[in-house]
Amino acid sequence: MQRTKNTPNAGPPTEPNSVVRIACLPRGFAKGAANEMHRNCGYGTPQKYDPTFKGPIHDRSCTDIICCILLVVAIVGYVIVGIVAWTHGDPRKVIYPTDSRGQFCGQLGTPNENKPFLFYFNIIKCASPLVLLEFHCPTKQICVNKCPDQYLTYQNARRQTKDFEYYKQFCVPGFNNPQKSLPKVLQDGDCPSMITPSKPLAHRCLPAINTKKGVIMVGNDTTFEDGMGKRRNVTELVEGAKKANVVLEARQLAMKIFEDYTVSWYWIIIGLVIAMVFSLIFVVLLRFLAGIMIWVMIVLVILVLGYGIIHCYMEYARLKGEDGSDVSLKDLGFQTDLRVYLHLRQTWLAFMIILCIMEVIIILLLIFLRKRILIAIALIKEASRAIGYIMTSLVFPLCTFFLVCLCIAYWASTAVFLSTSNEAVYKVFNETSECDYAGQTCIPETFNMTNITKECPDARCLFAFYGGVTAYHKYLIVFQIYNAFMFFWLANFVIALGQVTLAGAFASYYWAFKKPDDMPAFPLFSSFGRALRYHTGSMAFGSLILAIVQIIRVLLEYLDHRLKAAENKFAKFLLTCLKCCFWCLEKFIKFLNRNAYIMIAIYGTNFCTSAKNAFFLLMRNIIRVTVLDKVTDFLLFLGKLLIVGSVGILAFFFFTQRIDVVRDTAPPLNYYWVPILTVIMGSYLIAHGFFSVYAMCVDTLFLCFCEDLERNDGSPERPYYMSPELSEILLKGSLESSKSADSQG
C-alpha cells in the first residue's frame, strides 16, 4: 500500500510528492491486540496517538538532580580515600617477606636487599596454634641470602671455624662469638639451636621434604638432632612447615601463575585479537546475511558440541586400562596442576555428560522454538539494518570497556594500598615457658629495659603483623567497604551511560519515518550528549540501587565464609535463602534498569517514571516479551558461545602443544590452563562487548515496537514506524501469540 503527504490526517510529514511504503494492519490483529490489552489493562495506560512524536524528545530537562549531586560528592570522597590510602599504604608488604624487626627481605634500598629469603630460627614453633590465630610464627625470623643445605647444630658448629663461618650467616647480623654458651645464645636470640636442609618457597626457607618408599625424609634423614642433645623425628619439622605454609601455598601458586603470564602474555593477546577479529567478522556478516548467519551459527554450535562429545569419549576410551586412570575425583582431591585430572577417566566422563546435556537442551529448544526463531531472526535483521546506519555503535563498547577498566584499576590499587597501610605491630612471644605478658604489644627498642625480660627471661619482642590503633586504622574496614561500594556504583554508572547512549541512537533509527533520511546526522554522539547533559542523575540513581544490592551480596558472601565452620544449621539455611533472594533481586533490577534507561533515552523522564512506564509497557506485552525478546537473547548467546568455543579449542590445542606446525612455538608453562582460561574469559568479554550492541539494539527496537503498536494502528492516518519487512513478521507473530493466548484463556 502507498500513501503521499497529501493524505488527510497523515502521520509524520514527508517531502512533497514522496512516496512511503507502510504496512497495513493484518486482519484479525486488531481483535487479538484488543484482547491482549483487555487482559493487561491493569498495567498502566497505553500510549495514545501523538502526531508530533518523532522519537527521542529533544526538548528535555535535567532529571534526578539530587542523585547527580550525591554522585559527585561520593566521587570526591572516593578520591580522598584513595589519596589517604596511597599516603599510608606500602604494597611491598604484600610482595616481600618481613623479618622479626619488620624489615623487608630482598627489597632494594634496605639493609636486607641482598638477603631475599626469610629463615625461621625454630620451624617447629610454627606448629603452634598461635600461627592460625595471629598469622605469625612465634620464633625469631631473619633475612638470609640463601637457605641452609645441611644439618648442623650450634654446638657442633662452634668447634670448627669452617662450620661456624657457614653457621653464623643464619644468626643475627653482627654475631661473631663462638665461645658464647648455647643457653646464653638462645636466651639472647642470637642464633638458632640447629639448622636443617631447606628449600625456598615463596621466599621462605622451609624444610626440604621428600619421600622414599612412603617414608618422609628431610634431606636424607628421618631424624635430626635439635641442638639440645635430643634426637627428634622429621615429622615435627613437617608439622611446623605446614603451619608456616598456611598462606605460602597460595602465594606459590600465584607466583607460578604470574610466571605463566610472563611467558605467554603475547600469545594471550594474539588469542584475544583473534577473538576480536572473529567477533567483528561475525557481526559484519550478520549485518548483510542475518538469516543465513543465524542458521549457520546454530549448526556450528551443535557441531562444536558434538565434536567435544566425541573427543571426550575417545579420551575416555584411550585411558581404559592405564595405571591410575580409575582413581575417582573425590579420592584425588584438589590439585593445583590441572593436568593431573586429564589422566582420569572420570574427568572425561564428566565432561562428556555435561556436553551431552547441553547438546540435548539446545536441540530441544530449537525444535520447540523453531517458529519463534524465525520471528527473532527478523528482529535481528532489523537490528542489523539499524547498526548498519549507525556503524559507530560497534566501537562504542570499547569506550565503555576502557572506563570500566579504569574503575577496576582504581579500585584494585586503592584496595592494595588500604590493606598495606597498617603499621608494624610487635608482640611478646615466649618460646619455652609460660609468661603472663605473652601476646601483649611491645616496643623493640625499649623491650630489654622493661620488667618483662626479668619475669620472663625467654620472652622476645617480635614483629607480629601489620595493624594499628589509631582512628584511621580502626576504620580501615569501613574504607574497604566504601571502596568496594564505589567500585560497584561507578562501574554500573559507566554501563548505564553506554546503555542510554545506544538506546537513544537506535530509537532515533526506529522513529525515523523515512530511514535513514529522517535520522539525525550523528545519532550516537547526540544521544551521548543528551545522556550526560540531562540524565546523569537518573543513571546515578539506577546504578546506586544496583550497587546497594551488590554490596549486600558481597557482605552475605563474607558472612557465609565466616560461618562455614559453624554448626548452626538454621543460620546457614537463612543465609542461603538471603543469598538466593538478593541474587534474584539483582537480576530483576538489572532487567528493570535496562528498560528504564531505554525510556529515559526516548522520553527524557526521571528514573522512577521511566522504570514504571517500561515495566507497565512490558507487562502489557508480556507474551511478546517471552516469545521474542528471550528467544533473541538465546540466539545471541549461541553466537557468543560459538566464538568462545572456537577460540577456546584453538587455545587448548596450541598451549598443550598438540598442533604439530607450531609445537615448538608454544611457551613452556607451569599450568597450561592459565592462558587457556584467560583467553576463554577474555574472548567471552570481547564477544559480549560486540553482541551487547545487538542485544541493546534488539531491546530498544522491541520497546519501540510495543510503543508503536499502542500509538498507531497501521492505517494511512496512523501508520506504523516499523519497516515493512519487520511489520510483516512481527505483526504475524503477535497475531499468532494473541490467538494462542485466547485459546488458552
UniProtKB/TrEMBL annotation:
Localization in the cell: Cell membrane; Mitochondrion outer membrane
Keywords tagged on the record: Antiport, Cell membrane, Glycoprotein, Membrane, Mitochondrion, Mitochondrion outer membrane, Phosphoprotein, Transmembrane, Transmembrane helix, Transport
Topology in the lipid bilayer: Multi-pass membrane protein
Main location: membrane
Annotated GO CC locations: mitochondrial outer membrane; plasma membrane
Domain of life of the source: Eukaryota
Pfam families to which the protein is assigned, alphabetical: Choline_transpo
Catalysed reaction, written as an equation: choline(out) + n H(+)(in) = choline(in) + n H(+)(out); ethanolamine(out) + n H(+)(in) = ethanolamine(in) + n H(+)(out)
Presence of the UniProt keyword Phosphoprotein in the record: yes
Transmembrane segments: 65-86, 265-285, 292-310, 348-369, 389-412, 486-513, 534-556, 596-619, 631-655, 671-691
MF (Gene Ontology): antiporter activity; choline transmembrane transporter activity; ethanolamine transmembrane transporter activity
Role played: Choline transporter.
Family: Belongs to the CTL (choline transporter-like) family.
Record's protein name: Choline transporter-like protein
Organism: Chrysemys picta bellii (Western painted turtle)
